[in-house]
Each structure stands twice: as C-alpha cells, then as structure tokens.
Design goal:
Length: 277
C-alpha cells in the first residue's frame, strides 16, 4: 500500500516529526528555564514531556518551506512570519478558552497584543534555520533506521498517551472542589515521566552552566595574572635601563623614561577611575 504524501513527506513522517519536535521543544523550554531560574521547571501546557506548539510549528515550516531550502534568507523570513502567526493564534485561543495568558510579551516593544514580538520572531526564524539545515537531516536519518512496524506502534502509543494527557489536563483545568484534587493526583502520575526526564536534563544543564562560569572565572584570573607578570617584567626592565651606563651618560634619557612612566601611571589611574564609574 502506497504511503500518502503531503509535499515531500509521508503522513507517517509528519506524525513522527510532530512528536519528535514536540519533545525537543519541551527539552529546550526546560533548558531555558534552568538557565534562567537555576532549577528544574516542568514547562508546557500538558503533563508529558511535549510542547505541541513546537511540533506544529516545526512540521508546518518543513512542509511549507522545504521547497525553498536553497534560498537561505527566504526560509528565515517565511519561518519567522509563520511561527509568529502560529504563536499568536495559539496564545489568543488559549486565553479565550482558559481566561489566562500562557505567555506574555506585553513589556516588550512593538508587541502584538502580548502574544508576539519582533525579538521572538527573529528567534523563531533563527531556530527554524537550525531545524531545516541541521536538525532535520539528523531526524530523517533516525526515522529511516526505525522499522516501519515498530515506528507505527511507537506512534500509536505516543498518540494515545497524548490524547489521555490532553483529556485529563482539560478536566483538571475545568474541575472544581474534590474532583480537582482527584484529577490533580492523576495528572501528578502522568507527570512522573516528564519530571524524571526533565530533572536529568535540568541537572546536566546546571552543571554545564556552572562549569562554563568556572572556566570564565579561571580565564579572568589567568589574564589578571599575566597582566601582573607583564607589569613586573616591565618595571624590572625599566629599572635596569634607568641604572644602565647609557642613562648615566645621557641624563636626558632618564628624564624621558621618567615622563613615560608618569604617562603610564596616569593612564592606569584613568582606567581604574572608569571601572569604578
């Protein structure tokens, strides 16, 4: 039986890419939250380790913009506009349905009703370039290595889990009283897997950030040490010159060295003053 194709992708590939990018999007949210807050935050609307808005955005970009792959800047521009439109529509619908904003860019310049802003549009465009030219080839290779039967079984499990997650998330949001507490317990069980994955990912991110900060501090200390050694050597050389036979023979040379030394000291004082300011 021939696969149904939509553009350059089969329905099977589209479904696989939707779940993969939903997961990768969720991972990026966890990493970002860890770098910002220093701790693990289970981001996303659902309980599982997925952010469907990323899956929708990435698959839409791939379906519509793969034919333009040879035109780098056109891909960037179209991706920025497309993802911004998806983000705006999703944010608008979520607020109308649940009466709350899931993200808010109201404090940023030229924002569009708080659902989008130029900075995020540029970010989406840049991320989509990474997706189209770097991530997608790797995912194509991964999907091609999975036997078709196994792939269909995995997609069935993923779709079933996502459906259950959506149902219980919506029930909890709309429930009151005892029902809310009962549903909260169910959703806590559904979050076990994402909490475990996110905890590991957040821990790795935090360690990486700490290591980078440590390397930066070590580098600053090393540069300061080199500057100090250089200053010591310069001072020793100057002293040696000042006591040399030429200086004793030509007093004006001693005056010249003294003037240069004063200029250097003044320059150092000015730099210290700027740093304090």
């Amino acid at each position: 039986m021939a696969e149904i194709m939509i553009g350059s992708f089969s329905l099977y590939e589209i479904a696989a890419l939707f779940f993969l990018y939903s997961f990768l999007g969720w991972c990026s949210e966890v990493v970002f939250a860890t770098l910002k807050t220093g701790k693990f935050v289970n981001r996303g609307f659902l309980n599982g380790p997925v952010c469907p808005i990323y899956g929708v955005g990435a698959t839409a970009v791939l379906l519509l913009l793969t034919p333009l792959k040879g035109q780098f800047w056109l891909v960037f521009l179209c991706a920025a506009l497309l993802c911004s439109a998806i983000e705006f529509i999703t944010g608008f619908v979520l607020e109308k349905v649940f009466h709350r904003k899931w993200w808010d860019y109201s404090t940023r310049k030229f924002n569009l009703m708080g659902y989008g802003c130029p900075e995020m549009s540029l970010l989406w465009g840049g991320l989509c370039l990474i997706v189209v030219y770097a991530v997608q080839p790797a995912l194509d290779a991964l999907i091609s290595k999975i036997p078709l039967t196994v792939g269909h079984i995995l997609l069935g499990i993923a779709a079933g889990t996502l459906l259950v997650d959506i149902v219980f998330t919506l029930l909890q949001i709309s429930a009151l009283g005892k029902r809310y507490k009962e549903l909260e317990k169910i959703n806590a069980v559904l979050r076990i897997g994402s909490d475990a994955i996110g905890g590991v990912l957040s821990g790795i991110t935090a360690k990486g950030a700490n290591a980078a900060e440590h390397i930066k501090e070590k580098g600053s200390e090393k540069v300061a040490g080199l500057k100090a050694k250089s200053a010591e050597k310069s001072a020793a050389l100057r002293k040696k010159i000042e006591n040399s036979r030429l200086v004793r023979a030509f007093p004006r040379l001693r005056d010249k060295i003294g003037e240069e030394k004063q200029d250097e000291n003044k320059k150092g004082e000015d730099e210290d003053k700027k740093e304090k300011d």
